[in-house]
Amino acid sequence: MQQFWQRWQQLSNWQRWLGRIIVLSCLVIAWQAWQHRPDGNIHLFVPSIAGNSVLVQTPNAKQIIIDASTDPVAIMAIMGQRLPFWQRQIDLLVLTSNEPQQLSGALALARSYQINLVLAPAFEPNPVAAELAQALTQQQSRVVLIESGQKMTLDQVQLTILAAPNAQSQAIIQLQFGAWHSLIGLNPSDQVARQLAVAANQCQVLIWPWSRGDDRLLASRCGAQALIYSQGQAEQQDPRSYFARGSQERRLLHEKLDGSVHIRSDGQQMWLQTHAQP
């Protein structure tokens, strides 16, 4: 140790500053690696940004993105917060709509991240879809047409397409990890929603459009412990008056009141945390 200190004293000022920068950089990288290490749990993050998006991290830190919001800048900022700077890969991107506005966030992701697999409806002929298709082709991403009944498993997390998107409805997706289930319907049509309610899918978390008349019924049928409202439809009333009635059966969450929502599950139990903006 004494020899090291003597050698350090012999260095010039710029060499000492360089050494400090290197040490500090190593500490930052080590801290980032520790913060983002796989923990054996599934993580669901519903950010409070324009449009809809759900970020999923599997038990071994594989990345699944369901939609990418209508705000490219916001989704890129969220990705920067959720992933370490050296992580530039998305394992699965699921698009529940082919509307140009809904594809703008996906295009931003495709320009900055390597996307291994994309589940998407057929792209309509428009400039945004054309740019997205070109970006996916250049990085040799595999693109699969999204269809009802599709199932795939990524790192112990099973994703099922319960209803494929069409001109009037976005897709409905179920995630399963162990005994934990989540039902994600960012903006399905009333007809598709009625058919789903009959199926009575079990879920601990229901992500559903605000505001609709079928939300409480569906949450009761599937036994949801938490109901998170997406931005699927124009708001008909302020959520504060709606939530004032309360719910003893489950927790109700809306981004105007609660901000972003982070859900963690070990396949049995579930933990939920909100991140409201000041």
Automatic annotation (TrEMBL):
InterPro entries linked: RibonucZ/Hydroxyglut_hydro
Annotated transmembrane regions: 17-34
Sorted UniProt keywords: Membrane, Transmembrane, Transmembrane helix
Listed name of the protein: Uncharacterized protein
Organism: Herpetosiphon aurantiacus (strain ATCC 23779 / DSM 785 / 114-95)
Species classification: Bacteria, Bacillati, Chloroflexota, Chloroflexia, Herpetosiphonales
